[in-house]
UniProtKB/TrEMBL annotation:
It holds the Pfam family Lum_binding. It comes from Streptomyces regalis. Transmembrane segments: none annotated. This is Riboflavin synthase. Homotrimer.
Length: 205
């Protein structure tokens, strides 16, 4: 489990295309400290498994399903990426509960800079809109953010200078894809209410 608090801005050092997957080599001095085979590291919000680790770089295999459901497929050598290690038991939950399981991708639609922050508008797939509410949480490229405005096919977030300086959202431009993970609690509530309503409907008959 992750918290959506990005630990460092790393970058891709190598990409190997396989038959039905890709193998990425990524540099991140902070997240590779003490890393070992089998550990998890979130890359732009996608939970990946460390296959190999040498110095301040690690290798991860990305299956076709992940490439199809996320924006990792557009990464090339030199691409900047948000990196986060899993939360250790007993640590503070600085963001919100993030699984590293991408629900879909959005696209940066607009950026509105101001003196102390920047408003970013991002497209929202229709099947995810019901999970996104004003002042709720959403994960964008692995970053835990608060929704400012939630529309039927978009949402906006307000980014402080720290987020702009230390994550990929400071680099994204209109047209760039981003990974989205909605609040898992909302999905569980929907499922439980759906089961309950179905049960009550069957009883009523």
């Amino acid at each position: 489990m992750f918290t959506g608090i990005v630990e460092e801005l790393g970058h891709v050092t190598a990409v190997e295309t396989l038959d039905d997957a890709c193998r990425f080599r990524l540099r991140g001095p902070v997240v590779t400290e003490g890393a070992k085979h089998g550990d998890s590291i979130a890359v732009n919000g996608v939970c990946l498994t460390v296959v190999d680790h040498e110095g301040d770089e690690f290798t991860a295999d990305v299956m076709a399903e992940t490439l199809n459901r996320s924006s990792l497929g557009v990464l090339t050598v030199g691409s900047r990426v948000n990196l986060e290690r899993p939360m250790a038991v007993g640590e503070r939950l600085g963001g919100h509960i993030v699984q590293g399981h991408v629900d879909g991708t959005g696209e940066v639609l607009e950026r509105k800079p101001s003196e102390n922050w920047e408003i970013v508008k991002i497209s929202l797939p229709a099947d995810l809109s019901r999970y996104v509410v004003e002042k709720g949480s959403i994960t964008v490229d692995g970053i835990s953010l608060t929704v400012v405005d939630a529309g039927p096919d978009y949402f906006t977030v307000s980014l402080i200078p720290t987020t702009l300086d230390l994550t990929t959202l400071g680099l994204k431009q209109p047209g760039d894809p981003v990974n989205l993970e909605v609040d898992v609690i909302a999905k569980y509530v929907e499922r439980m209410l759906g089961d309950r309503l179905s049960s009550e409907g069957a009883t009523a008959k």
